[in-house]
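Please check this chain.
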Amino acid sequence: MAKTDSKRKPVAAVPTRDEMMRRAQALVPAIRERAPEAEALRQLPDATIRDLHAAGLWRINQPARVGGPQLDYQLLVEIASEFARACGSTGWVYVNLGVHHWMLAMWPPEGQDRVWGEDPDALIASAVIYPCGKARATGDHYVLSGRWPFCSGIMHSEWAMLGALVLGKDGSPPEPRTFL
């Protein structure tokens, strides 16, 4: 019998580590077949992104409180290695985007909710190259500006995690921060 929440709706079982690895391994033939397309496009094919979403593989490190299975970081690396044997680009983009879910899980709940509350499947690219960006405090917010040279997976991402230096006050040195 399926579990239910307090409103008596069925609750999906949380996939295990082994189940997620099986899902990843099942995608390897399609990833291998699409490797030339990924090379030609210079980005992952949309079909690969869709397959990874459908298998729930982007979300393996998301906290349970936002619907993720909250599995270990090592699994992310192991899955990326499986994919890289079939297509180096898929392995790289998978781990590169997937690690941002792991990083966001360490942010305050308000930041997590801003991203995953709008779309639990949102992908996050990054360019955490601090000198590329400048930020200045304006009350309880920051104004961010800069030019970041490259973000792997940005074409499939709804968010970007960007590094910037917060300009120091009264001659104090700038402080590196990460922004969404």
In short: The first helix runs from residue 17 to 41. Confidence is low (pLDDT under 50) at residues 1-5. Residues 20 and 56 are 8 Å apart (CA to CA). The chain has five helices and seven strands.
